[in-house]
Amino acid sequence: MNKTIKNILLFAGLFIILSLTLSCAGGPNINWGPVTRVTRDINDILDLDWMLEEVRFYSTPIPARVNRHNMMRYEVYTLRFDAERISGTGNANRFFAPYETNQYGDLSIGLIASTQMATLSEPFGINEREYFIYLGNADFWSIRDEKLQLFSYDADGNQVTLIFFQVFL
Q: How would you class 30 by CB atoms within 10 Å of its CB: exposed for 0-12, middle for 13-18, buried for 19 or more?
């Protein structure tokens, strides 16, 4: 075999190995800062209703534009973890999706199905589609100061943290 063919095969092999390595890496490598991965108990969030209170892009908080104690139900984003799926409201629509988690809070949310009603407002300045993207991209969850935090990223790979407070519906 001549030297040119050997170089082409070597390059092709390295390219395939690099491609496979990068494709198996999952989502973007995000540094979540001071969040530490400790053992978490899914029972801390199961069968509880959570309402979105704040969205953080990178580290910049975007607080809710609606009064937390006097909200119309269709102008909020909610979330509930059951044993096998998540569900809630995405502004005007109901949604559900399967999910998986482990004792360290790693999270994987499957395809989200929702009703298809038109929405009239965008709490937090995000639309329902973006909320579903953030949920679908969530990497892990944590409870901090009695609030549920989902750590995610947007379509461009930028950090997004969804912060929920517990509600009693």
A: middle
Quick: pLDDT tens for 58-104. Answer: 767 666 554 444 444 446 899 999 999 999 998 889 999 999 998 88
Q: What are phi and psi of 29, to 5 degrees?
A: -85, 105
Residue 143: how many other CB atoms lie within 10 Å? 15
For 37-167, the fitting CATH number among 1.10.1040.10, 2.40.50.100, 2.40.128.270, 3.40.50.300 is: 2.40.128.270
Beta-carbon contacts of residue 117 (< 8 Å; ≥ 6 apart): 92, 93
Q: What's this model's pTM, rounded to 2 decimal places?
A: 0.71
